[in-house]
Specification:
four-stranded mixed beta sheet, about 50% helix, five-stranded parallel beta sheet
Length: about 475
């Protein structure tokens, strides 16, 4: 029957896979795949998780393509459907990541033949197709907004509504590694391309810009290099601190001036604020400070937990709250390490056919981040909170519902969660005999209040400073 064609096609493919692959590979990566539907030459199959899909794409894509073309024909295509978690709707992916809308081709005017035409152009005028270099995974939809990055995301969303026409030009994002600078910068570019397909957007790491500049100088094609970059509508330069060479800075200065004067959007990322950039010309530094500088900070517990939940859902994997809470507690430095730990956990559990438990997560995080030395104790946190609010410890641990006592207790729970590696249940037991749900609610409440109440945020900041002093 025609409605069963997808089953017949996939079964035929499985026979071939079984013949050319090792039995363990076949049983692990192909038997769990289930055919869902087929339309024309496009076969849709269901896989257990996003990690499963990525593994097939990385290690078996060539084999799958050859077998499908043999079975269906040259026009064969494959879509993946990630098995839904709980009652959430399934997520469907093409056999490779979707593409950012392509840039229109641009006309680059050149000079006379005697002026040595460059790598992008020839004497006269040439149409050039510009690859945006944007990764579709780095979109706003895959960002988790928290106190650590809220300003950067909000500014980025404003820019994407009117690129080059806001006060945020240039936008300068800075912060430590793994805090999402590249993600936010590329998300802005992707959103601009979706809203304004006619604009030419280019993402370039500063090191690549520097290499291209040096190559242009060697080939005596600097004019072509500058003409190319001056055609951009949106220029995103990643890790701009790497432009610490005089010649490169001079070329970049010319590009910056031209684009800014013509209301083109400029977006930069750096591992340090503009004032700390070393070996930068004063005139360039002053321009980097023209627009908006935003510092991305380490994510708080609530943001880390939200990121883990979102990413595990994207992977199509259902992890227990205890596992996610453990990871969010264990790894506090940045999103990159946190995401790496989650993927490693999923990979280990999938390949070993084990359940993703707290014990397994503990083994994985020990290998990834090592032991985190921390001399802080829960007693020190309780003492700091009690000293700050001038309340006795027995009152902090009581069942009092007075507003001051409740807030002090919630802050103690939040700070313990942030700085000490222990479970929600232990925190609750030590701070008034509360359950883990109460502790989680307290952490969320403190995070929310810190973003809306300046006085409350000062309370938490002051106590954290006391804890830093106590930890020395």
């Amino acid at each position: 029957m025609i409605q069963d064609r997808h089953i017949a096609v996939w079964n035929n493919c499985l026979k071939v896979f079984g013949q050319i692959l090792e039995p363990q590979q076949f049983n692990t990566w192909f038997k769990p795949v289930r055919p869902v539907s087929m339309q024309d030459a496009t076969l849709t199959v269901e896989v257990p998780s996003e990690f499963f899909r990525e593994y097939l794409e990385e290690y078996f894509l060539d084999v799958i393509q050859k077998v499908l073309k043999r079975e269906i024909g040259a026009a064969a295509r494959l879509n993946y459907m990630v098995r839904p978690v709980s009652v959430q709707p399934p997520m469907t992916y093409p056999a490779s990541h979707g593409q950012v809308p392509v840039n229109r081709s641009i006309s680059v005017s050149t000079y006379s033949p005697a002026s040595n035409p460059g790598p992008f152009v020839y004497p006269g005028t040439r149409r050039v197709q510009v690859n945006s270099q944007l990764n579709p995974v780095y979109c706003f939809a895959n960002l988790i907004k928290g106190e650590c990055n809220k300003m950067g995301i909000t500014a980025g969303e404003s820019i994407s509504m009117a690129p080059g026409k806001t006060a945020f030009n240039p936008l300068f994002l800075f912060g430590g590694p793994g805090l999402g600078k590249t993600h936010i910068a590329q998300a802005i570019g992707i959103d601009i391309k979706e809203k304004f397909p006619e604009l030419v957007v280019l993402y370039v790491p500063a090191n690549r810009f520097k290499t291209q500049y040096m190559d242009a100088v060697v080939r005596n094609r600097l004019n072509d290099f500058l003409a190319f970059y001056m055609k951009m509508d949106v220029l995103i330069v990643d890790d701009i601190q790497d432009l610490a060479t005089p010649g490169t800075q001079n070329a970049f200065f010319q590009v910056f001036n031209h684009l800014h004067q013509n209301c083109r959007q400029l977006i930069f990322t750096s591992d340090r604020p503009p004032v700390e950039l070393r070996d930068f010309e004063a005139r360039l530094l002053s321009r980097l400070k023209w627009g908006l500088s935003v510092e991305l900070q380490q994510p708080d517990f609530a943001t880390r937990l939200a990121m883990l939940k979102a990413r595990s859902f994207r992977e199509g994997v259902s992890l227990s709250e205890d596992v996610l809470v453990f990871l969010a507690t264990r790894i506090r430095s940045n999103f990159r390490e946190l995401e790496g730990a989650l993927i490693s956990l999923i990979a280990n559990a999938t390949l070993a056919h084990k359940e993703a438990t707290v014990e397994l997560a503990e083994k994985i995080t020990e290998k990834l981040v090592g032991e985190q030395k921390n001399d802080l104790s829960m007693d020190k946190v309780k003492n700091a909170v009690c000293d700050y609010f001038n309340i006795p410890e027995d009152m902090l641990l009581s069942k009092s519902r007075k507003r001051q006592i409740v807030q002090a207790r919630q802050i103690a729970m939040y700070l313990t969660r942030q700085h000490i590696n222990c479970s929600l249940s232990i925190i609750g037991a030590e701070l008034g005999g509360k359950d883990h749900a109460t502790v989680l609610h307290a952490c969320t409440t403190v995070t929310d209040l810190m973003s809306t109440d300046r006085t409350f945020k000062q309370y938490v900041t002051d106590i954290e400073k006391m804890l830093v002093t106590a930890d020395r």
